Amino acid sequence: SSLAQGPSGQSGVFSAIAMMSSRSTTSSSRGVIVVAAAGAAAATASVLSRTFAHVGQSVGTGTSIRAAAFRGLRGSSAEAPPGGYVFEATSQPSLQLALGAFAGLAAAAISSGVAGRRRSGVPRRSAAVTARRAGTLADCPYTVYGKKDIDVSTERQNMQEITCPLEVEMPAELAGNLDAQRAYFAENLPKIYKDLKKHGAVVFRGFELSKESAGFTQVGEALELERCEDPLHSVAARDAVNKEAGVYEAVNKPSRRKFYVGMHNEMVGNRAPGAALFVCFKAAEEGGEFLVADGRKMFKDLDEDWLKTVYDKEVRYSTAEFPMGFLESLGPLQGAVEPLAYGALQQALKMKVDFDTELVWEKSEYDGSKILQVRAMPQVPIVRHPYTGEPAWWGSMHSHAEYLRSEREKVYGEEGFAETTGASRINKTDVYYADTDEKLEVERLKHLDDITMKAAVPVKMKEGDMVLLDNYLVMHGRCPFEGTRKHAVTWFKSPDYSKAEA
């Protein structure tokens, strides 16, 4: 996931700006469609672009901005609202259109009143997020890190090896009886909760009830798990099997088949579900195994000195980067235009997401050109479980580290972002030490990859098979695949472990 520590590949607002900036020096299209969220935004863009045309400050070639820009701002299924406008601009040079687009984004954010003031102690919620909330689903809860008081040496000594995941086969006598299968989960709730708390993940095999979306939803209900919104909803719209029931697709696109989804805990911004239930509606013809890794085992097996260091320093993720190379061709105007570009993108981000981010000017590792990089706020890489208090390795280093992603591409092929979103460079991610903003060392990332892959357990799922996992104890991922794969997931708040067997 772009501004997300998850692998959806949706780019939301980033796709919109990618269409404006990344094509500024490559497209010679005559007709450009600019979609504005309101008349004021479109008017601002038009006036500014015409002003620069008048003073003769145009450079470069024409820019292409697709009609999908509005959908990029509001989600892939959004429609232009009443009062939204489509304007046709002919033969506009790249500078005019880039400035107009940035101004339009800024005006849209300001005029819609979603610039995002923070109340005392209350995280910001954007209008886009509020509008997208599903009436039947609870908010995805805020991430619970626990106190930063973990004594790495002492607590590693006291940890025991736990089997993860635990495998459970459907009792043979339940075959063909969907009502009995539903009752099984309700009647065995205390034991299932106990197993989940101990093992971190439970694989349920052979159940026919979960071969269809409706029956799968009934399993979560029988287990008295409270569904919550997809944590990705504030950044992009994940494809859904049944959105009202909170059943979302789990990275099934054929174009993403070569993408190795690195191990991660599901979290977007400052929100994380407490649990998840994954299901297989159809297994891929080849590969596509679901992966689980016990975060407690990771905590125990990682190099102790580095674990202490990274826990103390904390980490920050870069979650997207926007090509801004066109600014370098503006000559004396660059200094005046950079703050405009920065401010417009900052307002667009505030409009799109309900958590804090920071924009940082950097140089692209692709070609050394200027970029604006989006970085999340600092976070600890080890959490205490909200109920058990156990320490566990946490986050998305394995999935988000640029070095590891590049190494996986050498084995499995390119990740497929360009094919699905047209924004492969936008979706570039990486991880940094929070106190110095320095990248994690390659040798540390190699070590992390080695320990992660030793802890990762592939789960080959058949139709109807499910994996229930505690998101604070267990990381998940997915192997590349060939063929057609239909897996899905529902996110939940943390289980009420007081209902677990003693």
Describe the 3D structure.
The chain is α+β, with helices and mostly antiparallel strands and 502 residues long. The protein is 32% helix and 20% strand. The protein contains 16 helices and 21 strands. The chain has helices at 13-21, 39-54, 69-74, 94-111, 127-132, 152-157, 178-187, 189-199, 213-222, 295-301, 304-313, 334-352, 397-400, 402-412, 417-421, 442-455, and strands at 31-36, 85-90, 166-169, 201-205, 240-242, 247-249, 261-264, 275-282, 286-287, 290-294, 315-323, 357-363, 370-376, 382-384, 391-393, 430-433, 457-459, 466-470, 474-478, 481-482, 486-492. The strands form 6 sheets. It has a 7-stranded mixed beta sheet, covered by helices on one side. The protein has a 4-stranded antiparallel beta sheet with strand order 7-19-10-17. A 4-stranded antiparallel beta sheet has the order 12-13-11-16. Strand 5 (240-242) and strand 6 form a beta hairpin. Helix 4 (94-111) packs across helix 12 (334-352). The radius of gyration is 24 Å and the shape is globular.
Which features characterize this protein?
about 20% strand, alpha+beta, four-stranded antiparallel beta sheet, about 500 residues, globular, seven-stranded mixed beta sheet
Total helices: the number is: 16
Beta-strand residue fraction: 15-25%
* Order of strands in the sheet with most strands: 3-4-18-8-21-6-5
Q: Write down the Rg.
A: 24 Å
Q: How far from one another are the termini? A: 38 Å
Give the overall shape: globular
Percent of residues in helices comes to 25-40%
Count of beta strands: 21
Mean pLDDT: 77
